[in-house]
Amino acid sequence: MERVGFSPRLWAYLLDGFLAALGGLFFSLVFGGILGGTVGATVGGPGAGPEGLALGAFLGSLLGAILGVGLMFLLISSAYGLIEALTGRSPGKMLLGLTIRNQDGSRATGRTLFWRYALKNSALLAALLGAGTGLLVLSALANVLYFGFLLGCLAAMNYNHQALHDILMGTAVYRRADLAAFDSPLDTGPQIP
């Protein structure tokens, strides 16, 4: 079985980013509309003229768009990545027919997939923790971890086609079609320890 190298994984990552952007656009439109109407009614009130309603609707829509994009970023950066941790495939990997397995091609346990996710997203987790606590040292650590993540992804160009987080967790990315003979017909998901 041949492991998947850097290029298909990059395409899956970009596809995930595109799907996330579409989700962010949807949420920003929904929140913009809801907040636009709410703020417009609040600011405009019963005695306000059309200018007050329009200003309130504009401010609410702008705030909703910002919150929608921000909320989607948080959802995608944490929950969206959990899809990969729970199933062994992100939506982008699913669409491209890729899956995460152990180095030997056997199914990875749920624990392995979760820790791979945590290691792969450690920069994001540090950034969220730093933003939540206000600790600048965590924000600086997030930058270092993100740089390490980028360099670690380039490791997938090596002979064994594993990124650094795969090497450390003993995992690799394969094409699902190549694993058909390896899997039993009843084996449908990651192994839960």
Could you walk me through the main structural features you see in this protein, from its secondary elements to its overall organization?
The model has no long low-confidence stretch (mean pLDDT 81). Helices cover 68% and strands 5% of the residues. It has a two-stranded antiparallel sheet. The protein is elongated. Helix 5 (122-133) runs antiparallel to helix 6 (136-154). The chain has one domain (6-176). It contains seven helices and two strands, in the order H-H-H-E-H-H-H-H-E. The protein has helices spanning 6-44, 50-87, 91-96, 110-120, 122-133, 136-154, 164-169, and strands at residues 98-102, 171-175.
Quick rundown:
With 193 residues, the protein is mainly alpha-helical. The chain has seven helices and two strands, in the order αααβααααβ.
